[in-house]
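Open question from group meeting: does this chain pack into something compact, or does most of it stay loose? Before anyone orders reagents, we agreed to write out a predicted structure and look at it together. Recording both the input and the output here so the notebook holds the full record.
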Amino acid sequence: MSHVKAGGSSKNIHNNAGARLGVKRFGGQVVRTGEVLVRQTGSTKVAGPGTFISRDFTIHAAKDGVVSFAKIKKTRFTGKTAPRTQVSVV
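Structure tokens returned:
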């Protein structure tokens, strides 16, 4: 016979809040310097002119202006290109 008691179950332990990721300012919107444009995990969207990217890949406005999005081809380390969305402030 076994000498180890039953372990039981571990239900209802995955109860953490969402990360609130996504686009915060959309194309055509007027923004001020430092505003958060996109919160993301990894570089799914790339920072274009008038923007900068912080340590956690959040894209901010580097100047006052209007937000715009454009499709670009980003070259990877291997030389292969991948489609990305470029965020810029003009």
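Observations to bring back to the group:
Residues 22-89 form a domain with the OB fold (Dihydrolipoamide Acetyltransferase, E2P) fold (CATH 2.40.50.100).
The chain has a mean pLDDT of 93.
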